[in-house]
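Sequence design from tokenized structure. All designs in this work follow the same two-part layout: the structure record, then the generated sequence. An example of the structure record is given first.
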């Protein structure tokens, strides 16, 4: 079958891009090209911004309850195509089908929260701020917003933003990742069916150049970016230079601390999912285990034994527990880090190189890999590998673990496994990371909470999801009134 070239969705219509170039989309399980994402031009970005800009006035005047009804329709449509969405995610990304289902569920949860926006969009007021004078703060939508999305949660991440943006009365443009654009394209088919006025939501496929055109366009009021730290930092600066508000969620290097009093039988499955779920390609993935004191020996043995049993393969096979990496380049990068760990003197306890899948000779597989005797200054301890590579660092106590966590340039997530409330309190209080897990391996905030992040894992002040989203997608206007 000839892979289809994806189309853009602009002003309520699907249109073929005129771009001369396109990015190939691969099924990472077998290396086949399954689609092409056009690298849309600045003119096409301009058309999307014009459509979103033209739709804004009428959409902001649409009562929030009427806007929310579109969210209810969208939820129904997403539930109706749930399994198909999950299968598309697995096919374009490689993650196992159950993880893809989890991703679709999380996307739907954000739509569900946006269904309640009419109750959340209320301002506040005070009578008699001076004699006979009242004051109120109202929340108003801002205009056209855009999302520049990463490959690793291709369906969900734009839904950390889009439902809130349009629920608040703004109009929207998504530029999906060129690596995994297909599920977002399918979601836009559902947005089309949800009967939104033309121009309220728009999809422009592309890569860096398309993102840069969005950032430079004077018609875009704000940008939500999720991706790697170097790009996040650059986008934050560019957005500011163009007078846009921006929230840029970035890379990570997350630690999982295991205390000697932790229940290892319960902790180990959590650590495994954290490190090897989605083949380590989650911004919340734990990639370092800090084993405190006596936890070290028994934990090491159990982790290696359990990780060695994980079934690797095509994510569409329900019995598989870990899929391939998303791209050939990602596989090469991860293999490079394994070589680097060896060169730095870490001890390889479980080697995922050379994993072969019968029937899938061209898949981008790397098996679960565990290094022991990792030191905090090693590249494999400091840099985001974004693959199924877990390092173990033995530490003497919780203070030493916190020193490593707080010494990292990243601050996305950290988890503690313990039976001690005192240790847990100390950890949550002192760890400079946005998402903290206590006996939880992946501290993923649900849609009613902000998806947090600190240090080089986040640039901005208002995060995606939760109440932060409402603040990001509105202006606060203060009205002071006196009637004679
Ligand atoms: P990436 O930075 O390579 O790309 C992200 C997006 O930016 C893509 O749409 C891409 O086309 C675009 N882009 C790339 N270079 C650009 C440039 N110079 N200017 C403008 N746009 C550009 O990230 P990725 O590889 O797609 O995603 C993986 C990264 O995302 C990891 O670092 C991961 O930790 C991070 N991530 C963070 C979170 C979070 O919430 N903190 C969530 C998911 C993923």
């Amino acid at each position: 079958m000839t892979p289809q070239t994806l189309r853009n969705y602009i002003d309520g219509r699907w249109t073929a891009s005129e771009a001369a170039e396109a990015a190939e989309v691969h099924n990472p399980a077998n290396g086949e090209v399954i689609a092409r994402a056009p690298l849309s031009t600045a003119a096409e970005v301009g058309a999307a911004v014009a459509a979103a800009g033209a739709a804004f006035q009428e959409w902001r005047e649409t009562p929030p309850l009427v806007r929310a009804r579109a969210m209810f329709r969208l939820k129904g449509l997403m539930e109706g195509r749930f399994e198909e969405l999950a299968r598309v995610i697995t096919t374009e990304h490689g993650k196992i089908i159950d993880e893809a289902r989890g991703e679709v569920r999380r996307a739907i949860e954000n739509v569900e929260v946006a269904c309640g926006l009419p109750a959340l969009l209320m301002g506040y007021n005070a009578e008699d701020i001076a004699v006979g004078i009242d004051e109120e703060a109202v929340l108003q939508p801002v205009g056209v917003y855009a999302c520049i999305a990463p490959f690793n949660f291709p369906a969900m991440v734009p839904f950390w933003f889009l439902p809130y943006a349009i629920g608040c009365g703004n109009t929207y443009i998504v530029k999906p990742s060129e690596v995994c654009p297909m599920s977002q394209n399918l979601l836009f088919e559902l947005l089309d069916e949800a009967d939104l006025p033309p121009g309220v939501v728009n999809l422009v496929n592309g890569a860096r150049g398309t993102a840069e055109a969005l950032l430079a366009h004077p018609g875009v009021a704000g940008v939500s970016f999720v991706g790697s730290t170097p790009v996040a930092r650059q986008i934050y600066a560019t957005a500011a230079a163009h007078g846009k508000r921006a929230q840029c969620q970035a890379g990570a290097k997350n630690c999982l601390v295991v205390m000697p009093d932790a229940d290892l039988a319960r902790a180990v499955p959590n650590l495994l999912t954290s490190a090897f779920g989605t083949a380590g390609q989650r911004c919340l993935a734990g990639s370092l285990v800090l084993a405190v004191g006596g936890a070290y020996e028994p934990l090491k043995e159990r982790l290696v034994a359990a990780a060695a049993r994980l079934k690797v393969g095509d994510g569409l096979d329900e019995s598989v527990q870990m899929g391939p990496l998303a791209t050939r380049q990602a596989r090469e990068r991860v293999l490079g880090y394994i070589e680097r760990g060896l060169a730095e003197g870490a001890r390889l306890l479980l080697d995922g190189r050379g994993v072969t899948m019968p029937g899938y000779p061209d898949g981008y597989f790397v098996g679960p890999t565990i290094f022991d005797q990792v030191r905090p200054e090693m590249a494999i301890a400091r840099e985001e590998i974004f693959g199924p590579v877990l390092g173990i660092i033995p530490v003497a106590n919780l203070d030493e673990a916190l020193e490593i966590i707080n010494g990292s340039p990243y601050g996305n997530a950290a988890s503690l496994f313990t039976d001690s409330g005192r240790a847990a309190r100390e950890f949550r209080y002192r760890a400079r990371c946005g998402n903290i897990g206590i006996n939880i391996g992946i501290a993923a905030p649900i849609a009613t909470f902000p998806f947090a992040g600190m240090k080089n894992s986040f640039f901005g002040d208002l995060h995606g999801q939760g109440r932060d989203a409402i603040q990001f997608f509105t202006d606060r206007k203060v009205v002071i009134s006196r009637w004679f």
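Residues 130 and 482 are 9 Å apart (CA to CA). We note this feature because it recurs in several other targets discussed in the main text.
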